[in-house]
Sequence to fold (68 residues):
Amino acid sequence: MENWINSIFGKVVCKVNNIEFENSKTEPKNLTLTESALSNEEVCIVFCPRNEYSKQFKYFRMWTPNVE
Fold:
């Protein structure tokens, strides 16, 4: 995992609800990141690339910025 974190990699950003976020923590090879400005609240989970993702990933919505 350390090699993957320290290298350049492609990424996909998804928006999930609280239940999906908590369920995602059970996936292998993940890292939960926190934000110090938010009292160290967990804000995202990153997953190492893999050949096949579990079924739950199929239902995550792609994140898009709110452009107004």
Summary: The two ends are 38 Å apart (CA to CA). The first helix runs from residue 2 to 5. Helices lie at 2-5, 18-24.
